[in-house]
TrEMBL record:
PANTHER family: 5-OXOPROLINASE RELATED (PTHR11365), HYPOTHETICAL 5-OXOPROLINASE (EUROFUNG)-RELATED (PTHR11365:SF23). One of its GO terms (biological process) is glutathione metabolic process. One of its GO terms (molecular function) is N-methylhydantoinase (ATP-hydrolyzing) activity. This is N-methylhydantoinase B. Residues 533-549 have a biased composition (Basic and acidic residues).
Length: 549
């Protein structure tokens, strides 16, 4: 096939996954999807090779081919057009339980040609605590409902009895049903568009084009890697703790570059721990793909072909690849961020102009309570579950400039949004008293990190609310690289009515919040890149004039 047609088809695959994402965004029920955009879309071919992804949540995408593979391995020749498959289990194609994945097969000329894959983070997935994250968990059965690959429905529809069973195991039934329906709608849209593409070009020609697109992406990525010096470098990053006594948990990366291939070996990382910072295998591989992708040019297609230039080695039983049954829910944030940080620390010795300072770490709060503004038949306020996506940390500085302020974490790279403050106040009993940049929070460097945020959030629930925290970074700030400085760490405080404060730990269950109390968030900035002494004096003065220092 000629290069122009290949370029058009590659763009067409990308357009399909982007359109699927827009459909999900516009039809989802929960704020975690329709405001914060915590979902991702991918298309694989019949061999479960990643063909295209949309720019959503980077840590999702490298794991999504595992979901496609799990469905094909489980159902194989029994798969047929119109089947709807669902999973979330980390040892059966998922990465962590809150991320549900719908997979739809697309056939052409009698054979499986593509799979439309939609992954979305749900507001609740049952388990011992609200909101999908249980800092007290020491095994996966305490974290929520496990779903191996199942046939959720046929003929493009879901079985009502299965949906009833799943929804009954979550706390926010309406949002769960609405979000699941939105996921199916997005997947069906992808199946429709891919079916039309197969009809237009024919299966043989189109699959030949997929092979060529993947080969070209591999050649592109390999050329970049070949331009780096051969050698071996090491880097490490540390998790604060696991919430159960383990502290300063080490992620160690040994990166070896030979020719057009980069090998990332995480085998020296610490053993798995009791708490939920352990990583599932798909999530670990995805985190390595994410770190590798950040070292490539933005024009490289992020598909299976590009990732052929990466080889991942790890040790089962380590914190980056926990054995089945371990608690793993926090893994898409932590230890994903630390895997990327360890890779970047290593690769600053190989290609310092391509690494960037650390992005801030995730520190989530999930609040549940009753909203008196929405009374129910029993006279009580409607129950709500709200996830803190606001006050995001800063991104890291890099060779071309300063980091983005409040951009988020490495695992999302700006893909997660904090959404409208006004919309959050309208939908939940919350008042955002302040929400602004936090001066001095960034790591200094030739190019400084982006700033973190200052948030004062008043909880106005009907009676006491309860909160769980899930995150990291209250001890370790964002990494400064290539002689740049680390950022300040997080500091989250619950301010009581009498003015006293309670410092919130990153992994707590059942924090009681009385009406009118204030959550004061001071989130980390990004790490700096380069020697601070080399910073342009005009940039320093500009920061000073804007009140950022």
């Amino acid at each position: 096939m000629d290069p122009v047609t290949l370029a058009v088809l590659n763009a067409r695959f990308t357009a399909i996954v982007e359109e699927m994402g827009e459909a999900l965004l516009r039809t989802a029920y929960s704020q975690i999807l329709n405001s914060s955009r915590d979902f991702s879309i991918a298309v694989t071919d019949g061999q479960c090779r990643l063909v295209a992804q949309a720019d959503h949540i980077p840590v999702h995408v490298g794991a999504m081919p595992f979901a496609a593979r799990a469905v094909v391995d489980r159902f194989g020749d029994a798969m047929k057009p119109g089947d709807v498959y669902l999973l979330n289990d980390p040892w059966h194609g998922g990465s962590h339980l809150p991320d549900l994945t719908i997979v739809l097969p697309i056939f052409g000329e009698g054979s499986l040609r593509f799979l439309a894959v939609v992954r979305a983070h749900h507001s609740d997935i049952g388990g011992a605590t609200h909101g999908g994250y249980n800092p007290g968990a020491t095994e996966i059965w305490q974290e929520g409902l496990r779903i191996p690959p199942i046939l959720l429905g046929e003929g493009g529809e879901m079985r009502p009895d299965l949906v009833d069973m799943l929804a009954l195991n979550t706390r926010i039934n309406r949002d769960f049903r609405g979000d699941l329906a939105a996921m199916l709608g997005a997947a069906k849209l992808g199946a429709l568009r891919l079916g039309a593409l197969l009809d237009q070009h024919g299966a043989t020609a189109l699959m030949g084009a997929v092979d060529a697109i993947l080969d070209l992406a591999h050649a592109h990525a390999a050329r970049i890697v070949e331009s780096w010096p051969d050698g071996t470098w090491t880097g490490e990053a540390f998790l604060d703790d696991d919430g159960h006594g383990a502290e300063n948990i080490a992620i160690r990366a040994t990166c070896t570059k030979r020719g057009g291939t980069l090998t990332v070996d995480l085998s020296a990382s610490d053993d798995q721990v009791r708490g939920f910072v352990n990583s599932s295998h798909p999530n670990m591989v995805s985190a390595c793909c994410m770190g590798f992708a950040y070292l490539l040019d933005p024009e490289v297609a992020k598909n299976e072909g590009a990732f052929r230039a990466l080889r991942v080695v790890a040790r089962e039983g380590s914190v980056v690849w926990a054995r089945e049954g371990a608690a793993v829910t926090l893994c898409t944030s932590h230890c994903s961020n630390e895997i990327v940080e360890a890779i970047m620390r290593a690769m600053q010795g190989c290609c310092p102009e391509r690494v960037m300072g650390g992005w801030g770490r995730r520190f989530r709060i999930a609040i549940t309570g009753e909203d008196a503004r929405r009374p129910q038949a029993d006279g009580k306020g409607r129950r709500f579950v709200w996830h803190l996506f606001h006050a995001r940390p800063g991104g890291g500085g890099h060779a071309k400039g300063d980091g983005w302020s409040t951009a988020g974490e490495w695992h999302s790279a700006g893909g997660l949004k904090f959404g409208s403050v006004e919309m959050a106040e309208a939908r939940f009993p919350l008042h955002f008293r302040r929400h602004e940049f936090l001066p001095g929070s960034a790591g200094e460097g030739q190019h400084r990190g982006g700033l973190g945020a200052l948030l004062d959030l008043v909880v106005e629930s009907d009676g006491p609310a309860r909160a769980n925290t899930a995150g990291d970074g209250a001890r370790h700030g964002s990494a400064g690289l290539h002689s740049g400085q680390d950022s300040a760490p997080h500091r989250y405080v619950l301010r009581h009515a009498d003015g006293t404060e309670r410092v919130l730990r990153t992994k707590e269950v059942g924090v009681v919040i009385q009406p009118g109390e204030v959550i004061e968030v001071r989130s980390a900035g990004g790490g700096g890149w380069g020697d601070p002494a080399q910073r342009d004096p005009h940039a320093v003065e500009a920061d000073r004039a804007e009140g950022l220092l």
